Amino acid sequence: SGRILYDHSTDKMRIGAGGNTYLNIDGNGHVTNAYQPAFLVKPTNNQTDFNQGQTITIVLDNEIYDQNGDFASNTFTAPVTGKYCFQFSIQLNDISNQDSSTYYYIELNTSNRAYYVLSSIDQAVGSSSGQYFFTLAGGALADMDANDTMTLRVVHGGSSGTGPSDVSNNSHLSGFLAC
Questions:
Q1: Which of 41, 80, 140, 168 has CB 3.0 to 4.6 Å from 115, enough for a Cys bridge?
Q2: C-alpha span between 62 and 60 (Å, rounded)
Q3: In the 8-state DSSP scheme, what is residue 51?
Q4: 3-class DSSP state for residue 95?
Q5: Parallel, antiparallel, or unpaired for β 172-177 and 38-42?
């Protein structure tokens, strides 16, 4: 059973169905929806020791918020078909002894396609000192169907270099249904 309620004393309108209110509109035109998908997640701990040539799924096990309960086990699942806005900032630590043929990229993978952010290490061949950390940031407005999924991975590529790297717990991923 659907309903539309208007409260003259607070100048607010509520729209609902099944006995629940889903959409609230205040007198200034602000619209809120408590079931609109939105989330912010981070790693609880550093994800350590991934080596050149490896691709790893970033462990995002610390939910700061998950407004519709759509994020679990490092995966966002779209509850409805729409355009979803995703943003990420991934800090990589323990970058050392790399040469100019070493690169990292972040893959934001959806069921429909992948979005990439690439960075190469610009350092002299044979150098024994390197950056301790750097951050890859990016995002996408992704088209997703109901039940499509999204995960975030990091690729440590290139042809040479030594030493493993880490994904810092200062990293984060957020997303919401845009339209």
A1: 140
A2: 6
A3: P
A4: coil
A5: antiparallel
